[in-house]
């Protein structure tokens, strides 16, 4: 491990004014820190891609919408994916990227190139951490699709590598950039909601057809996890926004986790209905319980109730409740209640008055009143992109921050803490919901690290 | 409450009750035994909830109320007046001190004792009532400790008397429709249920004239202090005590800030409540796993600013019910993939038999706030029918014990930082062979 505050001190020193980063290495950054940016002369941020399937290609498209970028190299073991991505880049007038597709580990050669600032990974899950580690060790910043790691050990490897190399590792959690995520953040900063107490949400999304590959955009690799694992296998979409709201790693941190899975059954029923009684998919034992629930506790005494449910027939849900001392927001319902501001019902003296009469109000006026600067500035540009604009925001913020030599909104500690829920929940489920201690990936820095500000424009 | 309003309510519930009795009489059919005498009910506690139950019983034929106990004279004499106004014999009154109910239990003209006191009296009144040869019914929760739960079970088994906790949430029309749909396999194999008591009671807790005990529980305890409204209907759907059983429970609470903040805002910084240590965390979350591998999650939150919710979910391999949305999603049945449809779409086919013959115009006029209208009247009709016929009531002592035990068991888990706690099996293994609850 290098200087424990290497990352932070770099942020602070480079925050003095807008700066550029054009070479890798903390020393190089420090040496360049004094040079002011001359408008229009920012050197391009050079990005190498590993994995350009559906998700990687989508992110590449967002990157190509930005100024001052280059894509010198792309790796994918699928030659068709690679060719499609190369054409996308060259069609925009940029130089045709060099391709790497000779083997599953060809990304290592890509990482060794000297003309890359950032390696962006959108491969299947098990490759995320190894590629990020290889990239950082080769002097590149790393960005990865979710989750960043599959084991607690991998999470620590990411943290250690980032600290040793002075390179960032960003998990690309796009839900952090939803208009509503940033609205709630602004309301918290302005004290409208009071103190956060409790958040409830989850990844609740019927993926049976996706896992069994019976739909065009199937992801059959997910099936293997459902067969072998049992826990919360996909925590980052809900936990990203929730962690921003709770200042996780920046004033608070997760301290413990307990997890419980229901029995399974929905996968087998789907398979039997689709392929009959004797098919291997019907006979398979799926370890993953159909509904998994976890409770996370924080150092500040807050709780998160997190659900993982991708096997049952259901309507998609996300963050269902964010409860604070002065109000509550339900993303699922699009509703808000603010104590003392939202209406209350009649106050008669009978049972109806005795009963609480707090009334929901529509969240839309709040969305307008507490619109983030990011959405005000970039909303119109973003809204044509994937997932309601968040994919653009995600890549825009990453590129702008790195171009300016600033720490990205999400760093290696976030990548580690959010991803670790998978293996830690798995351990708790396997031990009859035994309480698991949650690692402090910041090694104590959580209490003094500055709050996140995705509205800070670079 | 003005007398005129009261009479109106009385006549409403009388009419309603008559309608309900007609329904159940119809179901009973030719095999029904004629009643030889009225059912005689003694009341211990006639405040908010006790008076609601009294109101309903006074609207019923073949019910007498020979004795009433309350330490609050205003409640006691109100009850006495209501009984006389209903044309029933004048009751004997008790209430000289906290344990005057013991004298009431010595009477030999009571079949049933209704306990609607502060929480801490429920179990001892019920256990003593059964020892004295009466059936016991109690407001929720039936007990506050695991020991008390066992006392109720032991007293019931030893004396052959029933103990029913008056959990009216089980009798709501929507929940009985969901139960009917679950039994018909519409949700497939059941996997998970969720429910909660999310009700901003900050104002109520600071109104000690009305319920002096309620705030004290937030000062002294930390767990899920009020589990029965959500767990009652869930336990019926999952056949808890009747084919499945709670296996273990995990519970955690957030820190406590809302009661202090509320006191500071409304009573000033120098109010003792502004700084008093409140043990109860503002939001409590519990998870229960059953022997058959189903899970239940529950919230208890009476301190935070939040609209009242009907939080309840039932999830299976083939479908999903949301109480908040009063909607269902049924695999390959709902019109749009992955989109809710109203629960009401299935009302015609799956309305529970005991609701089928109810006059819906009348149903709409019965609300008195706490659901003391239709669902409570229906619950009483069911209970009295069971007692008259010598049958076991829909909710029995094992339900009272298991549903109430979530309070002390969750408290134990919270105190140990969220460790899993084995759930007591109050049926002593009988859950494996007991039949699912049958209504009607």
Structure description:
The complex is a heterodimer of chains A (458) and B (440). Chain A has 458 residues and is an alpha/beta fold. Chain A has helices spanning 6-14, 26-32, 54-64, 79-91, 107-112, 128-137, 152-165, 179-189, 208-211, 221-228, 236-245, 266-275, 280-283, 351-354, 364-369, 373-382, 390-403, 412-430, and strands spanning 45-50, 69-75, 98-100, 118-121, 141-144, 169-171, 196-204, 254-261, 292-298, 303-309, 317-324, 327-330, 335-338, 361-362, 436-437. Chain A folds into two domains: 6-171, Rossmann fold, CATH 3.40.50.720; 176-373 and 412-447, Dihydrodipicolinate Reductase, domain 2 (2-Layer Sandwich), CATH 3.30.360. Chain A has a nine-stranded mixed beta sheet with strand order 14-13-12-11-7-10-9-8-15. A six-stranded parallel beta sheet of chain A has the order 3-2-1-4-5-6, sandwiched between helices. In chain A, helix 6 packs parallel to helix 7 (152-165), helix 7 packs antiparallel against helix 18 and helix 11 (236-245) crosses helix 18 (412-430). Chain B is globular. Chain B has 440 residues and is α/β, with parallel strands linked by helices. Chain B has a nine-stranded mixed beta sheet with strand order 14-13-12-11-7-10-9-8-15. A six-stranded parallel beta sheet of chain B has the order 3-2-1-4-5-6, with helices on both faces. At the A-B interface, strand 7, strand 8, strand 9, strand 10 and helix 14 of A face strand 8, strand 9 and strand 10 of B.
């Amino acid at each position: 491990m290098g200087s424990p505050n290497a990352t932070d001190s770099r942020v602070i020193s480079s925050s003095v004014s807008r700066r550029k980063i054009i070479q890798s290495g903390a020393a190089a950054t420090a040496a360049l820190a004094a040079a002011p940016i001359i408008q229009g002369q920012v050197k391009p941020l050079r990005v190498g891609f590993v994995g350009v399937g559906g998700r990687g290609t989508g992110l590449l498209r967002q990157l190509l919408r930005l100024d001052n970028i280059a894509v010198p190299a792309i790796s994918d073991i699928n030659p068709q994916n690679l060719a499609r991505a190369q054409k996308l880049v060259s069609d925009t007038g940029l130089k045709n990227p060099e391709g790497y597709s000779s083997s599953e580990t060809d990304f290592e050669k890509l990482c060794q190139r000297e003309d890359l600032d950032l390696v962006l990974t959108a491969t299947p899950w098990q490759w995320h951490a190894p590629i990020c580690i290889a990239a950082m060790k080769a002097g590149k910043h790393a960005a990865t699709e979710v989750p960043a790691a599959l084991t607690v050990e991998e999470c620590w490897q990411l943290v250690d590598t980032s600290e040793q190399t002075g390179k960032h590792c960003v998990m690309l959690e796009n839900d952090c950039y939803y208009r509503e995520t940033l609205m709630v953040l602004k309301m918290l900063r302005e004290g409208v909601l009071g103190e956060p107490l409790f958040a409830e949400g989850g990844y609740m999304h019927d993926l049976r057809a996706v896992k069994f590959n019976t739909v065009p955009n199937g992801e059959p690799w997910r099936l293997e996890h459902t067969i072998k694992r049992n826990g919360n296998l996909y925590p980052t979409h809900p936990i990203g926004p929730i962690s921003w709201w709770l200042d996780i790693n920046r004033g608070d941190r997760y301290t413990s986790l307990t997890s419980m899975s229901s029995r399974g059954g929905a996968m087998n029923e789907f398979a039997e209905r689709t392929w009959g009684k004797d098919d291997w998919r019907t006979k398979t034992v799926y370890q993953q319980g159909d509904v998994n629930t976890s409770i996370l506790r924080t150092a500040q005494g807050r709780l998160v109730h997190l659900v993982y449910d991708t096997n049952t027939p259901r309507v998609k849900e996300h963050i269902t409740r964010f409860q604070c001392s002065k109000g509550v927001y339900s993303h699922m319902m699009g509703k808000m209640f603010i104590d003392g501001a939202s209406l209350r019902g009649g106050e008669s003296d009978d049972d109806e008055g005795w009963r609480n009469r707090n009334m929901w109000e529509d969240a839309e006026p709040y969305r307008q009143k507490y619109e983030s600067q990011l959405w005000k500035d970039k909303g119109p540009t973003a809204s044509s992109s994937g997932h309601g604009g968040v994919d653009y925001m995600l890549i825009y913020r990453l590129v702008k921050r790195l171009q300016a030599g600033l720490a990205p909104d999400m760093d290696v500690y976030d990548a580690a803490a959010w991803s670790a829920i998978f293996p830690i929940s798995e351990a708790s489920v396997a031990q009859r919901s035994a309480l698991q201690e949650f690692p402090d990936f910041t090694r104590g820095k959580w209490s003094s690290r500055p709050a996140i500000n995705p509205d800070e424009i670079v | 409450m003005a007398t005129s309003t009261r009479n109106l309510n009385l006549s409403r519930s009388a009419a309603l009750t008559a309608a309900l009795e007609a329904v159940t009489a119809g179901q009973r059919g030719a095999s029904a035994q004629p009643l030889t005498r009225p059912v005689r009910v003694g009341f211990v506690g006639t405040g908010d909830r006790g008076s609601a139950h009294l109101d309903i019983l006074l609207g019923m034929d073949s019910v007498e109320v020979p004795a009433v106990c309350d330490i609050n004279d205003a409640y006691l004499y109100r009850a006495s007046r209501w009984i006389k106004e209903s044309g029933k014999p004048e009751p004997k009154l008790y209430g000289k001190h906290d344990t005057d109910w013991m004298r009431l239990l010595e009477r030999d003209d009571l079949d049933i004792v209704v306990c609607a006191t502060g929480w801490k009296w429920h179990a001892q009144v019920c256990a003593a009532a059964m020892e004295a040869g009466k059936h016991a019914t109690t407001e929720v929760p039936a007990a506050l400790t695991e020991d008390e739960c066992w006392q109720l079970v032991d007293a019931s088994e030893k004396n052959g008397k029933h103990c029913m906790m008056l959990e009216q949430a089980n009798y709501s029309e929507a929940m009985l429709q969901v139960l009917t749909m679950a039994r018909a396999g519409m949700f497939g194999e059941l996997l998970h249920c969720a429910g909660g008591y999310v009700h901003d009671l900050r104002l109520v807790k600071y109104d000690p004239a009305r319920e002096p005990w309620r705030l004290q529980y937030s000062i002294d305890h930390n767990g899920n202090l009020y589990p029965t409204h959500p767990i009652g209907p869930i336990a019926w759907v999952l056949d808890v005590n009747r084919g499945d059983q709670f296996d273990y429970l995990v519970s955690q609470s957030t820190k406590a800030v809302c009661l202090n903040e509320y006191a500071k805002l409304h009573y000033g910084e120098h109010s003792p409540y502004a700084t008093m240590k409140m043990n109860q965390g503002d939001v409590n979350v519990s998870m229960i796993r059953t022997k058959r591998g189903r899970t239940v999650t529950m919230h208890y939150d009476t301190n935070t600013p939040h609209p009242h919710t009907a939080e309840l979910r039932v999830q299976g391999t083939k479908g999903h019910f949301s109480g908040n949305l009063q909607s269902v999603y049924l695999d390959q049945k709902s019109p749009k993939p992955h989109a809710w449809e109203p629960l009401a779409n299935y009302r015609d086919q799956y309305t529970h038999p005991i609701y089928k013959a109810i006059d819906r115009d009348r149903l709409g006029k019965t609300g008195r706030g706490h659901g003391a209208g239709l669902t409570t009247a229906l619950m009483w009709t069911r209970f009295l029918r069971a007692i008259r016929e010598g049958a076991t009531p829909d909710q029995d002592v094992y339900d009272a014990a298991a549903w109430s035990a979530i309070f002390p068991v969750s408290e134990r888990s919270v105190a140990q930082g969220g460790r899993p706690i084995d759930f007591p099996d109050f049926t002593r293994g009988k859950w494996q062979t007991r039949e699912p609850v049958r209504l009607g």
